[in-house]
């Protein structure tokens, strides 16, 4: 039997939050939409921090630095966060490549066409608004030179990025897929739902999965990673995924879809405030 995915109301929320010492938050769709904070979200995080909870931010966005996220949190009225509390897929990809590549090796981050650099031992695919055929060709040249000796790494597989008003743009996953198809190889993925990004958090903080909560708005990234890593998972309905999708997974006979079901859901993380006010 799968998770019941209960609505997290005040009484249950007190117990769930009381049993946790760390909360991991996705950002866009959970804490803010674009450049506007979700109503009540800054106050909720301030209460959680005042209650002694460790707050970390885990995002698949590969286009911003840890410092940029810390600055945005402060600008939108959230509790001050140190850059070391932010785990983006670009930062975690850099950590991975430092560990995986030999000293002196370089990585080709999809960019403009240039002569082949003999030091390149990895191709890293992140979000690129200027992705072009020439860049795909350059990536393939590296991946075919020495075959598997050149790593193929993707920051995430998010195939679509939602915009205001129901619009969307193609996500990094589309670019990763293009390189994978051309190279006839599968990329190692850094971001959610890969557990590697969670392992990066664990490497910096003393975290017990049984006392950690993952709060996110996407079933196929946030919730799947949380469930895979043994965390308590909370879906917020201010972003991408819906309760209709959760119901579809609950009614499915596919075992893999059961891992997409969160333990709890809230309409917004501001719904946690009543449990923190006593």
UniProtKB/TrEMBL annotation:
Entry keyword set: Cell membrane, Cytoplasm, Hydrolase, Magnesium, Membrane, Metal-binding
Biological process, per Gene Ontology: glycerol biosynthetic process; glycerophospholipid metabolic process; negative regulation of gluconeogenesis
UniProt GO cellular component terms: cytosol; plasma membrane
Primary residence: membrane
Compartments, record wording: Cell membrane; Cytoplasm, Cytosol
Residues annotated for Mg(2+) binding in this entry: 26, 28, 217
Pfam families assigned: Hydrolase_6, Hydrolase_like
Keyword Membrane: yes
Cofactor binding annotation: Divalent metal ions. Mg(2+) is the most effective.
Entries under InterPro entries matching the protein: HAD-like_sf, HAD-SF_hydro_IIA, HAD_sf
Entry-linked Gene3D superfamilies: HAD superfamily/HAD-like
Active site: 26, 28
Family: Belongs to the HAD-like hydrolase superfamily.
Protein name: Phosphoglycolate phosphatase
Native source species: Crocodylus porosus
Gene: PGP
């Amino acid at each position: 039997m799968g998770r019941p995915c209960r609505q997290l109301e005040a009484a249950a929320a007190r117990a769930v939050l009381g049993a946790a010492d760390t909360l991991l938050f996705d950002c866009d769709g959970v804490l803010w939409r674009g450049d506007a904070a979700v109503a009540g979200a800054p106050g909720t995080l301030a209460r959680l921090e005042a209650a002694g909870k460790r707050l970390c931010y885990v995002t698949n966005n590969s286009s911003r630095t840890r410092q940029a996220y810390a600055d945005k949190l402060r600008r939108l009225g959230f509790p001050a966060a140190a850059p070391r509390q932010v785990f983006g897929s670009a930062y975690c990809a850099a950590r991975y490549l430092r560990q995986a590549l030999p000293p002196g090796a370089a990585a080709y981050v999809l960019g403009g066409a240039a002569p082949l650099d003999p030091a390149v031992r990895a191709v890293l695919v992140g979000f690129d608004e200027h992705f072009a055929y020439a860049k795909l060709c350059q990536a393939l040249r590296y991946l075919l030179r020495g075959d598997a000796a050149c790593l193929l790494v993707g920051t995430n597989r998010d195939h679509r990025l939602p915009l205001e008003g129901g619009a969307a743009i193609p996500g990094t996953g589309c670019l990763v897929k293009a390189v994978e198809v051309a190279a006839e190889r599968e990329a190692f993925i850094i971001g959610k739902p890969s557990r590697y990004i969670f392992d990066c958090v664990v490497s910096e903080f003393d975290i017990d999965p049984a006392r950690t909560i993952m709060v996110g708005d996407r079933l196929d990234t946030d919730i799947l990673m949380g469930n895979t890593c043994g965390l308590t998972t909370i879906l917020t309905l201010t972003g991408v995924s819906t309760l209709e999708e959760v119901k579809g997974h609950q009614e499915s006979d596919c075992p893999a879809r059961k891992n997409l079901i969160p333990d709890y859901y809230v309409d917004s993380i501001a719904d946690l405030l009543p449990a923190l006010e006593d």
